[in-house]
Design a protein that fits this description.
By secondary structure, the chain is of the alpha/beta class. Helices cover about 35% and strands about 20% of the residues. It is built from eight helices and eight strands. The protein has helices at about 20-25, 50-55, 75-85, 100-105, 155-165, 185-190, 200-205, 210-215, and strands at about 5-10, 35-40, 65-70, 85-90, 110-115, 135-140, 170-175, 195. The chain has an eight-stranded parallel β-sheet. α6 (about 185-190) links the parallel β7 and β8. α2 packs parallel to α3 and α7 (about 200-205) packs across α8 (about 210-215). It is globular and about 45 Å long. It binds D-xylitol-5-phosphate and zinc ion. D-xylitol-5-phosphate (DX5) binds near residues 11 and 34. Zinc ion binds near residues 34, 36 and 176.
Length: about 220
């Protein structure tokens, strides 16, 4: 079983202090920083783009786990790679050719992630699993932090983990959306090894980030 890693989502951070918030996350034990990029088209919200990521790069050396909720995504991969992303995760619905977009991410020597929305079946990407480093399973409909965990996603995590074992593949299984202290153990036991969290990490226990990260990964 892989070591459990925590990727805090800065969508819940203080956007006026993103640099110091990122430093605080690293000092509090974050394994990577989950950066939610939204374009107001693929999802009904707008956040940040490559210039902001580029300006944040100097605040930490831990990986930027960049979740691109943008469409079309292919033509922007270069910009995010050059801005300092380490993992670039895209949604299959956001590209005309998933294989080409996977290759484009590889071209910049970045880790490749593919994200499945709650209604997107594993079959959409099963021919790509041997070419990717990470599957990001959405446990909310993307666009906002603070949403409720969709519990039927647990079965999808278990199914993906079975496929991973059967094919003897080594991709990470990351789960994103509504993760909290009461569902994290179930998510991990289903087969996830990376947990994304925004609200729980930044808001619980009076915003004690270090304690919240420890509580999420204590399994
Ligand atoms: C939602 C984002 C998630 C979200 C997680 O579209 O992809 O990363 O910010 O935030 P919480 O943990 O608050 O659900
Ligand atoms: Zn995300």
């Amino acid at each position: 079983m892989k070591k459990i890693q925590i990727s805090p989502s800065i969508l819940s951070a203080d956007f006026s202090e993103l640099g110091s918030e990122i430093k605080k996350l690293e000092e509090s034990g974050a394994d990577m920083i989950h950066v939610d990029v939204m374009d107001g088209h693929f999802v009904p919200n707008l956040t940040i783009g490559p210039p902001v990521i580029k300006s944040l790069r100097k605040f930490t050396n831990i990986p930027f786990d960049v979740h691109l909720m943008i469409s079309p995504v292919h033509k922007y991969i270069k910009d995010f790679a050059e801005a300092g992303a380490d993992i670039i995760t895209i949604h299959p619905e956001a590209t005309d050719n998933l294989n080409e977009s996977i290759n484009e991410i590889r071209k910049f020597n970045k880790k490749v992630g593919v994200s499945l929305n709650p209604d997107t079946d594993i079959s959409v990407i099963e021919n790509n699993l041997q070419d990717i480093d990470l599957v990001l399973i959405m446990s909310v409909y993307p666009g906002f932090g603070g949403q409720k965990f969709i519990s039927n996603v647990i079965e999808k995590i278990k199914k993906l983990y079975e496929i991973k074992k059967k094919l003897n593949l080594n991709f990470d299984i990351e789960v994103d959306g509504g993760i909290n202290f009461s569902n994290s153990e179930t998510v991990i036991n289903a087969g996830a090894n990376i947990l994304v969290s925004g609200t729980t990490i930044f808001k619980e226990n009076n915003g004690n980030i270090k304690k919240n990260i420890e509580l999420l990964k204590k399994y």
